[in-house]
């Protein structure tokens, strides 16, 4: 191998080691941010525990599983506040007719005031 190839391979190895060292720290940082902001975090152990609990026939009538099934069948709302949806719709130009109507009304009021 040439010097350049060996240097590139060494850099790749060093970067992979750094990635392996930093990735768990980054994941922990993301989890901490989610938890501090009231987010829901599930790790693999928690999901595995839920799967084991759900597969146990003795837990078939569990209130937790019944509630999770009901929650899974509900429709997730697109936004918490309807006003946000209307506001974002106006920004995208989704309500042109109401903007035109408002403009026509304001022009009519100005003409009315001008004529007396």
UniProtKB/TrEMBL annotation:
Composition bias type Polar residues, residue spans: 76-86, 95-106
Region of interest (Disordered), ranges: 76-116
Record-given protein name: Uncharacterized protein
Organism: Candidatus Megaera venefica
């Amino acid at each position: 191998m040439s010097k350049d190839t060996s240097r590139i391979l060494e850099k790749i190895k060093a970067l992979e080691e750094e990635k392996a060292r930093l990735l768990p720290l980054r994941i922990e940082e993301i989890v901490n941010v989610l938890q501090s902001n009231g987010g829901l975090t599930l790790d693999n152990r928690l999901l595995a525990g839920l799967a084991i609990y759900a597969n146990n026939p003795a837990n078939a009538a569990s209130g937790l599983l019944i509630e999770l099934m009901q929650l899974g069948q509900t429709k997730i709302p697109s936004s918490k506040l309807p006003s946000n949806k209307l506001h974002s719709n106006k920004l995208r130009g989704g309500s042109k007719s109401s903007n035109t109507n408002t403009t026509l009304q304001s022009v009519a009021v100005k003409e009315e005031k001008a004529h007396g």
